[in-house]
């Protein structure tokens, strides 16, 4: 069922229920008013009969009055004297008294028919009169009045349905225009939608435009990434090819061995670059649904143990600040280890030999800070602003690397809703990198 059909069904159902409720209330109100009115008529009719018959009672013989109208069948009366003799009655009145009540209103069932009866004596207390009406006649009148009131409303329901169909279609036309605009678009068209829309539809268009902008930025980012990756891979592959050609042409074994060694280093650099590229690509598939409580102290100990051999080969010393208690954050332990491993790998690669690399986990108020500090040469201010860009490497860097390590770190921090801070130590005596996690209060 379309939205237009659903809205029409809901509105018509609501209107129909309202009309049914109005009909029921109208029927009850009409029934009440009719009872009041007809009770008054019964009392008035009794008074008139008393007035007309008082002087003629002695001349009245027991007889009945003829029916003068079809509704007369629903009205009955009896005239009794003080000796309990029936002196005058309508054709449809029974031989026994209509009621045992001698004054006021009462309701009686006679031969399966319910009657509303009014009884009264005359002033001399020698004439008792009963005037009665059938209750089903009253119900019929109330029903008839209700039907006459509601019939015009019921006849307007089809007209209302057509009018509502047109009005709903008119109101939903902005959505139709939006649908047509999206249908006409090509898959590559991510430009903003420009449509005049009511306030209810404008937020939808705004969110779509924001989505198009994010997708466009992502596509552009991936295009740059692909181009940069192709460029970065071309360099080690070209180097490997050149070294292999040198090895083929070499006449002496030392020359050939040196060329092959250089080719092997090129392979290692290409392998590292591809590994970093795959890591960066896999980061897009993680979500908060996989988060668990992670002990950063324990993760730090494990990662330092894994990189101890690499650090020793570069004559570096790895240290972990003395921590007695675990410090937890919510996150993905695998990614957090990748984050710390990249920070330590960068520190091992780019700091001079005999440097100290220290890992600390600090808890300050509502923050947890994961810190990696070294005592290398630090970075220039211009490099600090660009260091997290993909494939960026600071000028003068001699160590081999892909330029993706800090991009991976920044992406993992973003996944964990943490911030990345990079600054030089005092007097450029090293670099401090911090991952700052905000903890819920």
UniProtKB/TrEMBL annotation:
Its EC number is 2.7.13.3. It holds the Pfam family HATPase_c. The chain crosses the membrane at residues 149-168. GO terms for cellular component: plasma membrane. Coiled coil: none annotated. The keyword tRNA processing does not apply. Keywords: ATP-binding, Kinase, Membrane, Nucleotide-binding, Phosphoprotein, Transferase, Transmembrane, Transmembrane helix, Two-component regulatory system. It catalyses: ATP + protein L-histidine = ADP + protein N-phospho-L-histidine. Residues 169-220 form the HAMP domain. One of its GO terms (molecular function) is phosphorelay sensor kinase activity. It is found in: Membrane. It is a multi-pass membrane protein. This is histidine kinase.
